[in-house]
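Changelog note: in this version the structure field was regenerated for every chain. One regenerated record is shown below for reference.
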Amino acid sequence: MYLLNSVHDHRNIGEVSKEQLNLLIAFLSDEDDPEPGMYVDYDVLKDLTAIGADRMLIGMLENALGHHSWMRFTWSTKPPFEPLIQVVPATPGRRRGRA
């Protein structure tokens, strides 16, 4: 899985499959654009729908776009799960040191 992230506010847009990402790259990437990421607006969403893009992908991008007229986003690989807190069972016995 791959993660889509908004360039403007670094917000996580959602997860996409390799096939969905390949479609976005083929349709939206512009090698001449010096800015990172891909650009989307409501007209681009209509074009993606017309070429048969996945409805869930279109809905996810539409939700992320919200009331804005356009959005730039990037993708990254999904990092492996890392627990935020490691739980270590307490050992029986007296507690040493200060309370």
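Spot check on this record: Helices lie at 18-28, 42-50, 55-65. The chain has one domain: 2-77.
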